[in-house]
């Protein structure tokens, strides 16, 4: 029986929690638009339906992943996590450097509200609740698919599926409760910093599990994850600073 140490369990649960916070904040903007225009009934029904589909996906695929040989599972998921994590880290670095704009939940809220209002005007009154619920379902499902993948990736094969799922559900509950009480887009959530952290964690897991899948014996065993995380964090921060300074020098030369 493989012993699960806290050095692996804690980052896995934290990755699921932080990734869920990021995705749920984005989905909540659409949920709030629908709740504002059509009431909370349509918003809640759409959210519950999407969460049900995601739960079925995780529960169905989790046991399948657990049946695969551990080294194959580690290699496949390690490569996918590395690609996934580097994608998050790349966008976080570019946003931190000012190359691409930060997410503006207030602007997204206004745009989504205008689009949904215009669409509703083209529909019959009896279909507006269905349209609003479908908009929430699509938003939660699309954002949740990334979370479901992360839960499966960090949880399957190591007995962490349930803890990772609990971390994700905890994040969903926290964001929805705070958002419902505040009744406004959660624009103050440090989304890019969270994405930076998740990118670092997923990339670290990716390197660690890819190596294990290839039979690499990491010095320090599970503690090597901390070293990888420090390397990715330092590299990401240094890259963001370098790009930001390069852009500043470029603007000075142009002016």
TrEMBL record:
Record bears the keyword Cytoplasm: no
Residues passing through the membrane, by range: 12-35, 42-65, 71-89, 130-154, 160-182, 194-211, 223-243
Protein name: GDT1 family protein
Organism the protein comes from: Achromobacter aloeverae
Keywords noted in UniProt: Membrane, Transmembrane, Transmembrane helix
Lineage, highest ranks first: Bacteria, Pseudomonadati, Pseudomonadota, Betaproteobacteria, Burkholderiales
């Amino acid at each position: 029986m493989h012993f699960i140490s806290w050095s692996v369990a804690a980052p896995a649960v934290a990755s699921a929690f932080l990734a869920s916070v990021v995705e749920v904040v984005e989905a909540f903007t659409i949920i709030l638009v629908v709740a504002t225009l059509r009431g909370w009934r349509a918003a809640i029904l759409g959210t519950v339906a999407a969460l049900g589909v995601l739960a079925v996906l995780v529960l169905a695929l989790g046991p399948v992943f657990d049946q695969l040989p551990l080294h194959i599972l580690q290699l496949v998921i390690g490569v996918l996590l590395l690609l996934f994590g580097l994608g998050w880290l790349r966008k976080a670095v570019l946003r931190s450097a000012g190359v691409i704009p930060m997410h503006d939940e207030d602007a997204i809220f206004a745009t989504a509200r205008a689009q949904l209002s215009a669409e509703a005007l083209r529909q019959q009154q009896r279909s507006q609740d269905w349209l609003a619920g479908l908009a929430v379902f699509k938003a939660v499902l699309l954002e949740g698919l990334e979370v479901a993948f992360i839960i499966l990736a960090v949880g399957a094969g190591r007995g962490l599926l349930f803890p990772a799922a609990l971390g994700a559900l905890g994040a969903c509950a926290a964001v929805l409760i705070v958002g419902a009480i505040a009744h406004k887009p959660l624009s103050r959530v440090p989304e890019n910093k969270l994405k930076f952290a998740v990118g670092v964690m997923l990339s670290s897991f990716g390197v660690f599990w890819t190596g294990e899948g290839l039979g690499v014996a990491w010095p320090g065993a599970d503690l090597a994850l901390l070293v990888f995380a420090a390397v990715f964090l330092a590299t990401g921060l240094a890259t963001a600073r370098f790009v930001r300074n390069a852009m500043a020098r470029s603007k000075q030369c142009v002016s």
